[in-house]
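Predict the 3D structure for this chain.
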Amino acid sequence: MISAKTEDIDKITGLMSGADDYLTKPFNPLELVARVKTLIRRTYLYQEERGVDEIIKVGSLEVNKTFHTAKVKGSSIPLTSKEFAILYIMVSNLGRVFSSEEIFELVWKETYFSSNNTVMVHISNLREKLEKELGYKLIKTIWGVGYKIDG
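Done. Predicted structure below.
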């Protein structure tokens, strides 16, 4: 956060409201660059410690969130960002049934409307792409409930 407010309470409020850092004006641009680089470095170190690059495998399907890739036997599956997000949610929670409403709100980050067929269309496209590479249906429909991927 960059601000002209220099009082301690302003800094505390900024940091408590979610800022990772607080820099007051006037400031040296080199200091700003150094602070940004520090935050980026810390983020990468944190990801490495947590194993964020770990690949989730379901059969011959490999999903990597960091690199935003889905592969079958080393061959990439071209997915849209929404298709990838749906797939990642489901492979991260194997066996869990997700309703269309849940998927929509998790992926689009908006309120679901009852007449919305968006999720159904994206699931259909995703199924087609996955089935072409895998040779079988990975995403199962639980009628009246939602969709799931078994482990």
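The radius of gyration is 21 Å.
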